[in-house]
Amino acid sequence: MEEKIQILVIEDEAILAMDLSDTLEEEGYYVIGVANNGRKALELFKTQRVDLVICDIQLKGDWDGIDTISRIQALRSVPVIYTTARSDKNTLERAKHTFPSAYLTKPILISNLRIAIELALFNFSNKREVSAQDDGAELNGILEKDAPSRETILRIDNLIFIKHNYQFVKILLEDIMLLEADGAYTTIVTNDRKYAIRLTISTLLERLNEPHLTRVHRSFAVHIKKVEGFSDREITIGKHTVPLGRQYKQTFIQQFQIW
């Protein structure tokens, strides 16, 4: 199932907040809420899944945008894009301490906003990967920089972002039913959508690093928890039937506990 990137907008000017929300929705994102002050923003962040925050620095109330983001980041790291009508040195210095992904001055151009969102997701995922590697821990976020024949995959916990129709879309790993190879491309098949990505099936499996996705044929991998039945030669998964290759049969069977 495709899930849109979820964005929290923090803006205390009602007309600007509405215009920004409408623009984001038109671009294919989902605005989980608009907060006109820091305390409301923090409550929304606590109760909703937020993939990205767009925050005005000048907010009414006892917290400005920078104070608000500091409190949000104390709960969980999230990519942040600041918006402001001011670009003075002191404001920039304070903002830098919260490590924003981008800093847009008003009025915001849609072309700049598109780039800022994409770079924010890209850099945030890359930062998580580097941090995890430095700690020697298992990666929670995966990102490999694009080469001419490779595509960007972002992973955070149990979901991935892939580029589809010029924007990143979110897919839960548990919603993937199967992968189907077609030369240098692989199709990710969910219950209701298909996404073609320019990676071989072997490379995609390696980068996803999802133990429940198992290779069952030179051209297919299946999510083991989605299997509804199988025989010596084929596997049924939803409305799909895929072949079970002889050389993959033993590995496939080993995915199940035998009593």
In short:
The protein is of the alpha+beta class. About 30% of the residues lie in helices and about 30% in strands.
Structure in words:
It is built from seven helices and 17 strands. Strand 4, helix 3 (65-75) and strand 5 (80-84) form a beta-alpha-beta unit. Mean pLDDT is 84; it is low at 128-150. Helix 2 (38-47) runs parallel beside helix 3. It has helices spanning 14-26, 38-47, 65-75, 89-96, 110-135, 201-208, 249-253; strands at residues 2-3, 6-10, 30-35, 52-56, 80-84, 102-105, 153-156, 159-164, 167-172, 176-182, 185-190, 194-197, 213-217, 220-223, 229-230, 234-237, 240-243. The strands form four sheets. The protein has a five-stranded parallel beta sheet with strand order 3-2-4-5-6, sandwiched between helices. It has a five-stranded antiparallel beta sheet with strand order 12-11-10-14-13. It has a four-stranded antiparallel beta sheet with strand order 1-9-8-7, covered by helices on one side. Helices cover 31% and strands 31% of the residues. The protein is elongated. It is an alpha+beta fold and 259 residues long.
